[in-house]
Design brief:
Farnesyl Diphosphate Synthase, 60% helix
Amino acid sequence: MSLSKHIFQPCRTPQQLWRHTISRRRIQRSQARQFSPSSAVAASSVTGAAEAEIQAAHKYCSSLLLKYDRPSYTLSTFIPRNAQTFYTALRALNVSLSTIPDTTSSHTIGLMRLQFWRDAVAKALSGSPPKEPIAILLASAMSDLHERTQGRARISKGWLNRMINAREQTLVNDPYTNIAALESYAENTYSTLLYLTLSALPMTSVTADHVASHIGKAAGIAAVLRGLPLVAFPAATHNRPDQAGTGTMPGATKQGAVMLPLDVMAQAGVKEEDVFRLGAEAPGLRDAVFTVATRASDHLITVQQMLSNLHAGQDVGHEFEHEGEEGHEYNLPDQFKDQQTKTPLDEVNQAFGVFMPAVATRLWLDRLESVDFDIFRPELLQSDWKLPWKAYLSFRRKTLS
């Protein structure tokens, strides 16, 4: 399958890239009299993390996104400046988690890698991250958040662990029993990414979380669809696309699987063996892809209707199904009284940059429709050159249509 050459050029491994970046930073530091006060990443009180090390971690994470998750890299410019470091670290973590199935040779090793990240996140939250660039940058960003808010805002360890735990399913390619299970996976990964980013602004808003939930579900469903061909035929490509974005990382080949909800496959008459044998021409496959893509599109349509209601001075139109769950409590303490004076529309507009994945998801779904839901078309794995312009217009107009 042909993949975009400008995205998938041969490159150093992430470990080599990290060592190269650290080495170059140390050379630059020895040659310079002093650091510029306008450096991209501020000095941090994170235990054992020097400024040069944090800057190198930032460069590593940015390079990871540029190569393996181009949409997230492009959309980072719409994130408020004070939260960009956390956003970069969080999205880099998502890339690393999503590539574990392809960079491990067994289920047991995959579980060990997930446990490493649970431990790394816990240490990053305590300010003592391991010598790993993503963990270092996370710890630095969370230290900055603590200083900016005088300790009032925090990042939920439960949400970070939810992201990690949800990836266990991808280690063995267990099928989604129904489309509700697929939505649950998207909620626990892509929606949670948005919740965490909102927390870093900081923003505590039931309306903002509600919008983020629908956008994350749409993005997660689209990501699973996008990765379907390479999950089904890993031996043909020797790797699988990062479901967070557009890139691939080298790794072990695994038994293929058709990652569509079983109830949708049954309704459309899709048989896994037919997909392995016939690919895009498997009976019912396009109908099944259409059904799943429609669910993602429905979430984006719901978001647009919510925004229309808010602009009309109404409420969003329906209740947030996750209100009251962990991390979704909205009894703000006295320290956040300034936020209590904002309307729901004010809150959504303030956090609008966080919602830009809706634009990337809509563009991809439109491309899928343009090829008549042939999920095996190679252009569906390429970056969309229209994304920066579409995202700019959306951000300026405060609309996701």
